[in-house]
């Protein structure tokens, strides 16, 4: 199962500089900014966004809270070939101790045919997703 997309957390004050660097250094390969659903979240890639940059504000004087916040902002997604693989992942991840963070189902707010499931891992609470991008008509 190939990697589908992932997120990287950067200081909010450095977010635009990171975008400029990535476009300047990878633009010749077709790498570009695709979307900013909110000002501190940027989807980047070539044909589609596969790298998501999140700008995070540090909590003053509370390193533990800041680290916990950054860990929970991490996200990694894997590509499934069909909705059944997405459902099987979700069931297996819950059986392995994960916590549901989004049951298997269509996510038309992302794009037509997007069918995914989200589980927080039981160790760090990182959001792990499996997604099918061509599951049009699945419920």
TrEMBL record:
Residues 53-130 form the Glyoxalase/fosfomycin resistance/dioxygenase domain. InterPro entries: Glyas_Bleomycin-R_OHBP_Dase, Glyas_Fos-R_dOase_dom. This is Glyoxalase/fosfomycin resistance/dioxygenase domain-containing protein. It comes from Venustampulla echinocandica.
